[in-house]
Amino acid sequence: MEKSVVSIVKGEQATLMVDEALSLIGGVESLIKPNSTVVIKPNAGHFYGPETSVNTSPAMVSAVINAIKKARPGQIILAESSAVGADTLQCLDVSGIRKAAEEAGVTRIVDIKREKDLLSIPIRDSRSELTRVALPRFILEADHIINIPIFKSHVSMVFTCALKNLKGVVQDRVHTQMHRTNLTEAIMDLWSVVKPDLNIVDMIRPAEGFGPHSTTPVNFGCVVAGQDPVAVDATICRMVGIDTLNVPYFISAFARHLGVYKEEEIEIRGKSIQEVHKKLWIPYLGDFDQWPEYHIHAENACSSCQGLLAYSMECMKAIGIYEKNAGMHIVVGAKKALPEGVDPEKLVIVGDCNKRFKGKGLMAGGCPPAEPYITYAIRDRRDYFEDGPTTRREYDETVARFQEYVQKKRPE
User: Is 265 helix (H, G, I), strand (E, B) or coil?
Assistant: First the structure.
């Protein structure tokens, strides 16, 4: 059987690394047709600057656009749909991606959330409750889709990389629907109807720790590329010390014929895995069982609120209030009913999707709530909303204590 080819390049300049990574898998001219329409899909899911490694780096975006231009495409479109509740264009601005794309000569930038020309595509052999998906016509009609994620830890799926990044081609309604079913299978269902031609991963400064928001960037200095997204993700797992057996969605992806993940089925070109290996700290392999002192009700929760919840658990430890509040119930994700028999003073209700329960527990409002709101609601036994009493100084002090805690917690 022909192996999936994945290239690994190590260096210091994104442009040179991307060019070399593409040359190792056949060269950009063999991958991109002249006069074609190319859609570039970065990760710009959240409102964070480039220093955080929450989003694909501007340098990576610029390098990919410049590389693709060598194939003389007709137009290059950069498109994204940020996380539920996030404004895509603001995320593109703050991340530096919009400026990088414009300076590199992208034809246009599209916020998928604002796109009106959608086609409803049936998902045959759906393995989640996602049986149809509304997708922008320009993506479905594009000649090429180039997926350029950044690798980072992610509470919903252990990490996010090539496979997870495709979720940013749908609008908020579908985002939410995917999180209210089996997310792994929903992502694979989405891949069954829209599949990027090429995956170029930003491993220059990937993020470990409590992603997707409270990331800890790590200097890794690599770019990884391949046409098989499963092989790309599996290769990166081996580069950062994640056992693929602990990531169940590889089996789901393989079952949908999206690619291969076994080491013997992948041909590595460029640097070997051993040459670039650096173990990253990915704390989500234990799921929410890591915090047994609390009763966590997280069914149907979006990735933003799951990430916020994980952050809050560790943040409470960082500021010294975790043990004294043990036994609290935390409700995350839209619910039809609250857990029965719980003292309202022991119940935290998270997110605007549950605001109809206001007054029946402690509310941490917002979509998603601000980072400290769950922590502060538990600490102060009162509601916290976007116009709540938190001061910037208090928030900055909390974040500083959390970052100091994370640095001490990180395994060597």
Answer: helix
212-224 pLDDT, tens digit per residue, is 777 889 999 999 9
Token pair 């929410």 in the structure block, residue: 288
In sequence order, which residues have a C-beta less than 8 Å from that of residue 93 and are 6 or more positions away?
99
The reply to whether omega before 206 is within 30° of 0 (cis) is no
In a domain, residue 203? The reply is yes
Instruction: For residues 23 and 408, give the distance between their C-alpha atoms in angstroms, rounded to a whole number.
Output: 41
pLDDT at 26 over 70: yes
C-alpha 225/C-alpha 3 separation (Å) is 14
- Residue 272 identity: S
Give the pLDDT confidence score for residue 406 in this predicted structure.
79
Give the largest Cα separation in the chain, rounded: 65
**DSSP 3-state assignment of 76?**
strand
Q: Total structural domains in the chain?
A: 2
Same domain, 221 and 353: no
> Does 248 or 91 have the greater pLDDT score?
91
Q: pLDDT band at residue 390, thresholds of 50, 70 and 90?
A: low
Per-residue pLDDT of 126-169, as tens digits, reads 999 999 999 999 999 999 999 999 999 987 788 999 999 999 99
Beta bridge partners of 162: none
Residues 170-180: what's their mean pLDDT?
Answer: 86
162: number of CA atoms within 13 Å, CB side? 33
Query: How do beta strands 4-10 and 347-350 pair?
Result: unpaired
Question: Alpha carbon of 168 to those of 140, 206, 295, 313: distances in Å?
Answer: 14, 19, 31, 27
- Verify cis geometry, omega within 30 degrees of 0, for the bond prior to 212: yes
- Tokens representing 170 are 């749908």
Query: H/E element holding 119?
Result: strand 118-122
Question: Which tokens go with 153?
Answer: 């830890």
Range of the domain at 226: 4-276
Q: Checking DSSP bridges between strand 222-226 and strand 198-210, what pairing results, if any?
A: antiparallel
Closest CA to 9 of 241, 163, 225: 225
Domain-terminating residue out of 251, 276, 301: 276
Domain closes at, from 249, 276, 303 = 276
E-strand spans in 271-344? 295-297, 329-331
